Amino acid sequence: xxxxxxxxxxxxxxxxxxxxxxxxxxxxxxxxxxxxxxxxxxxxxxxxxxxxxxxxxxxxxxxxxxxxxxxxxxxxxxxxxxxxxxxxxxxxxxxxxxxxxxxxxxxxxxxxxxxxxxxxxxxxxxxxxxxxxxxxxxxxxxxxxxxxxxxxxxxxxxxxxxxxxxxxxxxxxxxxxxxxxxxxxxxxxxxxxxxxxxxxxxxxxxxxxxxxxxxxxxxxxxxxxxxxxxxxxxxxxxxxxxxxxxxxxxxxxxxxxxxxxxxxxxxxxxxxxxxxxxxxxxxxxxxxxxxxxxxxxxxxxxxxxxxxxxxxxxxxxxxxxxxxxxxxxxxxxxxxxxxxxxxxxxxxxxxxxxxxxxxxxxxxxxxxxxxxxxxxx
Length: 377
Ligand code: AMP
Fold this sequence. Notes:
α1 (10-21) crosses α10. It contains 14 helices and 17 strands.
């Protein structure tokens, strides 16, 4: 069985490692000779929108992607030759923040107040609707806080618009949330759905820094709504594979932020903290195999290693820590690896995080400051 993966970054690398373990041959398409997945997969070095790249993976049994913005032409060409999972509609929605918001609204899922901002005039009108402060986000290809500008005063709107290149965008009201959480699930070809434990996430300057799996008593009751929302997205897209939805928790209510039609950074902890990790379950789903149990094995957290002064050696000395190194050239703001930490109790986990120099997961108070979240924007 051969799986073609569009994109060769760290997600493709971890998918490829899981693929080898369960007897699947991974093929990745990525233009960079240094793609993180290249050492662990058959690497087709080429652009994702180049038909020669598509030809090179035409013999695979199923195709998937590690990016939300996989080119529509590539997906359509591949779909004539093999199943593409999740399907073209999922990529069309996840690759466009406006389509994402429309889907949430169709399904009765709350979002921040938002408006289309494809022109400066749209942006002015949108700001009237959503109010200030607001955040302007590119509709396509923004990630890790890139392609976003906070607008605090009306006078800042034109500069924000220009600094994003005047490209199609949406404008959202800034939410004063209690915490950020995500819900991940896998759906099989037969419609079987498995949810992992919900995850609490801490971002800094738009980049995910830490995630922690939540025990049922820590979800403040939102878990049921989260499953219902994510289940409805899965059904409506007739989705196959792993899906992640990021939410803001506001007074016990969930407000959807965005979805990712792929394995997700806030699910990396599942490799060590759940009976079956997200990478294996994504592969099981897209190859039509039964899904594995997603049962939580115990208190688990994940710390992203970001930037240039990251020392892998530091983590070898931390008991219970498991290092995943992506083989990327370090650069400011770039994710170069992550560490998963397991412990017997929540207190032990917090203690380990503190001793490792990352501090425990933040309190709701600390993470609700708008400055903290958008300091670098
Ligand atoms: P995104 O790329 O949409 O996931 O945004 C990155 C991060 O910016 C989020 O995880 C939040 O920390 C913050 N953020 C994005 N949109 C909003 C919003 N409407 N209100 C408050 N914070 C936001």
